[in-house]
Amino acid sequence: MSSPTPRAALAGIPAYVPGKPPTARPGVTAYKLSSNENPYPPLSGVLEAVAAAAGSMNRYPDMASTALREALAARAGVGIDQVATGTGSVAVIYHLLQAFCDPGDEVVHAWRSFEAYPIGITAQGATSVPVPLTSDGRHDLEAMAAAVTDRTRVVLLCSPNNPTGPALRHADVVAFLDHVPGQVLVAIDEAYREFVRDDDPLDGVQLAKERENVVALRTFAKAYGLAGLRVGYLIGPEPIAAAVRACSLPFGVSTIAQAAVLASLGVEDELMARVEALVAERDRVTAGLRDQGWAVPDPQGNFVWLDLGARTTDFATFAEAAGITVRPFVDDGVRISIGETAANDVLLGLAGDFRKVHLRNGPGDPG
After folding, report:
1. Whose CA, among 58, 261, 354, 364, lies 20 to 30 Å from 154?
2. Strand pairing of 324-325 and 232-235?
3. What whole-number distance in Å separates Cα of residue 84 and Cα of residue 80?
4. CB 96 within 8 A of CB 153
C-alpha cells in the first residue's frame, strides 16, 4: 500500500544532539555544563515583565515584534526595516537559508562548527560545503574563500566558533569579504559576542552597515540568560532582512519573550557585570586546564574545548560520574560550558584526574 513519502533530502539531515541533563546520583551534586547556558537567574525586572505579559496570553503576540525591533534598531544605529527576529538565532539562520537557497545551491561553513548549520542547509535541499578548521580550532578564512564557487549562495561564519571557542578578528574578516563575490551572502553568527575579549573583536553589525552582502546574527539565549524563551535577531541590509521576515513563522516570538528581552535591555549594566564574572571564571578554568597539560584553544565564548579524539566518550562518562555533564562530539572532543564556581571547581578536579589515569602522554595516548 502506498503512503506519503518525505522529501529525499530529509534522509541526509544529521540529528541535532542537545546538551544532556545531569543524572541524579546519591551524594553527588550534579551540574549541567553541556548546553552553554547562563548559570545566573533572570536579570532584575525580567520576571516581573514576564508575569505581566503572561496576563495577555489569550491574545496573539505582535507578529512584527515592533517594540523589540525598534529597540534593537536604535541600539545598532539602523532602521527598523533592517532588523528581523525569530525564535532564537538558529531559527533566523534557517529562515535565511530558506530565503536565499534553492536545491543544489552551496553553503560554505567552517567545520567543526555549530551543528545546526548542516541541518538547516540539508533541510533546504542545499549542499553543505564544510571547510576544516585550523589546528588551533579557528576558521581557515583563506580556505573558505577558495571554497566559494559560482554555486555558492551563502557563507556562514561563527564567531566565537561553537564548539571550539576562538573568535574571528575584524581585520581578517574584512580581508575575507574583499575576496567574496557581492552576490554571495555572508552571515556572521555572533551568539557569544558579549564574551569576546580579543584585541580586534569582530563587529558583524558594523560590517552589515557597510556592505550589501553581510548580515549579523545575535541572540538573547547566552549572555542575557533567556535560552528558554528563544529570541534571536538579524541586522542587515533592508532587502535581506525583509526576505528573512517573509520566511519567518507567523507569531513566532511570543509576547512573553518580547517583554523579557525589552526588560533585559534596560538593565545592561547588571548584564555586563555578570558577563565579566563569567569571563573571569572562563579564564580561571582555562588557566587551570592548561596547567594540567591540556591544549585549550583560545576560548572567547562561555565554554572551553578539549580535543580528545577517540577518548571523547571516555571523558564524558568520567565527568558524568563526578556529577558534570559535558557536550561530547564523538571521536572529536568535548565542549564544556562555564558554570557556577563550584561546578567549575569540580570540572578542574575531574579533568586533572582524567589526565592522570588516561592521558599520560597527551590525548592520543591510549593509557
Report:
1. 261
2. unpaired
3. 9
4. no
Cell readout for 135 is: 589546528
Q: Are strands 106-111 and 127-132 parallel, antiparallel or unpaired?
A: parallel
Task: Please tell me the least confidently modeled range out of 17-21, 66-70, 194-198, 222-226.
Answer: 17-21
Q: State residue 161 phi and psi, 5-degree precision.
A: -75, 125
Distance CA(154)–CA(135), nearest Å, equals 25
Phi and psi at residue 48, to the nearest 5°: -65, -40
* pLDDT over 60 at 364, yes or no: no
- Bigger pLDDT: 142 or 367? 142
How far is it, in rounded angstroms, from Cα 217 to Cα 347? 31
pLDDT tops 50 at residue 118: yes
Using left for φ > 0, alpha for ψ between -120 and 50, and beta otherwise, residue 294 falls in beta
Q: Are 216 and 234 in contact (CB under 8 A)?
A: yes
Residue by residue, DSSP assigns 131-142 as: EEPPTTS---HH
| Cell numbers given for 279 | 569571563
CA distances from 277 to 109, 162, 298, 339 (A): 31, 20, 18, 11
Whole-angstrom distance, CA of residue 31 vs CA of residue 345: 11
Distance between CA atoms of residues 141 and 143, nearest Å: 5
In angstroms, what CA-CA distances link 238 with 75, 84, 205, 212?
A: 17, 10, 13, 9
| Rounded alpha-carbon distances, angstroms, from residue 18 to 33, 34, 115, 129, 302 | 12, 8, 10, 23, 17
Residue that is written with C-alpha cell 545566573 in the block: 40
Strands (E), 51-91: 83-86
Helix (H, G, I), strand (E, B) or coil at 84: strand
Closest CA to 82 of 181, 171, 206, 184: 206
| pLDDT recorded at residue 366 | 34
223-260 residue pLDDT tens: 999 999 999 999 999 999 999 999 999 999 999 999 99
